Amino acid sequence: MTNVTVLGGGIIGLTAAVRLQERGARVTVVADRHALATVSAVAAAVWYPTHTDGGERVDRWVTRTRTELLAQARARVPGVLLRDTRMLLRTPVGAPPWWAPADASLTDAPEPYAQQLRFVAPLAEMDVYLPWLQRRITAAGGRFVRRRVARPEDLLAETPVVVQATGLAAADPAMVPVRGQIVLVPNPGLRHSVRDEDNPAGITYVHPRRHDVVLGGTFEEGRADLTPDVASRAAIVRRCTALVPELAGVPVHGDRIGIRPGRRGGPRVEAEEVAGGRIVHAYGHGGAGMTMSWGCADEVADLALA
Q1: Cα–Cα dist 287/306, whole Å
Q2: Are 85 and 123 in contact (CB under 8 A)?
């Protein structure tokens, strides 16, 4: 049985830990904070590869992740929901985008939109889902250690394989913070998600969960402060209410700010042989960590246990 240490306790680290355990590894998750204190915990966590280029690997990751989340929703995994989604397109396209599920449909849409893409999107309520992942890891014999580690190499004296899933903490000059602000409001009875990704006033999406609705959002590359922006909040509410009039007059519960782990060139998922063992790098997923998580975890397990 191979001992593997996963460094990082967000969605990428936790799903990798689960897949490693399923492959027979003995897993320890080392992180300097609880999963609910990571950027994963404040994510809208809707399956959609926002600001992500395609390619064979990424396509495989997002497809496998959707398949896994659909199965989890059918199995009533805590926190996993399915939402019929309308993605409104301002420019007509001849075919669905690269990431669209096989059963997605492309139809006309009322002005100012040219078309709409309809598909079913899994959604994870992270305050429920992340603790479920932790319990699953513990139940399978995994350990959690709260500890700050400067470099993944520092763990190789204790384990032959380290998975580096540290997000922005990775010492990589290609990493860039991407600030996201969302607004939470009570759910007035909505059950469908709506996206207007190309709204000239800013990215606009409405994602209803069981007890609230996530309104978004911002995607501010290079900004890393966590102070809520009052003007951004008002603009988000205004855009989302125009998109979904049922939100008119709904009170604001609060803001959530997250610093996404962006990376120029896309996520880094690769194995590196170093003195003392192997490091599997798995970071830089930007705002699509949940969307790539399970598919990426499959590849991480392959690389770690090769």
Answers
A1: 29
A2: no
Q: For residues 43-79, b (16+ Cβ closer than 10 Å) or e, as one string?
A: bbbbbbbbebeeeeebeebbebbbebbbebbeeebeb
- pLDDT, one tens digit per residue, over 134-164 is 999 999 999 999 999 999 999 999 999 999 9
Question: CA 162 to CA 214: how far, in whole Å?
Answer: 35
3-state secondary structure of 195: strand
Per domain, the residue ranges of the chain are 3-304
As a 3-state breakdown, the chain gives helix, strand, coil percent values, each rounded to 5, of 30, 30, 40
Query: What class is the 3-304 domain?
Result: alpha beta
Q: How far apart are CA 8 and CA 218, in angstroms?
A: 25
pLDDT in tens, 97-111: 999 999 999 999 999
What average pLDDT does range 164-192 have in this prediction?
97
Distance CA 258, CA 261 (A): 9
